[in-house]
Amino acid sequence: xxxxxxxxxxxxxxxFNHPDTYCRKCNAKNSAAFLAPVFVEGIDARTGQKHPTGxxxxxxxxxxTKQNWIDARTGNxxxxxxx
Length: 83
Ligand SMILES: [Zn+2]
Fold this sequence. Notes:
The structure is a single chain. By secondary structure, the protein is an alpha+beta fold. It has one domain. The longest helix is centred in the first third of the chain and has 13 residues. It binds zinc ion. Zinc ion binds next to helix 2. The site of zinc ion has 7 residues, from helix 2.
């Protein structure tokens, strides 16, 4: 069984090694809150081309809100909205 501290260090390392991800609407980088992430290891999701670390995409919460995709009452996507 691994010491607890070792697991924490690995988790932090995984977080910092997370590939960059960009909003599909506004190109914001690494948004803190986002929907519909797309990531394929070794692929730039923006272009579909190979990439050393991979690059992901998402829809940032600001864009989802501006598009009126979020139901303010429930905090969920409005019915019929697919990302
Ligand atoms: Zn955005």
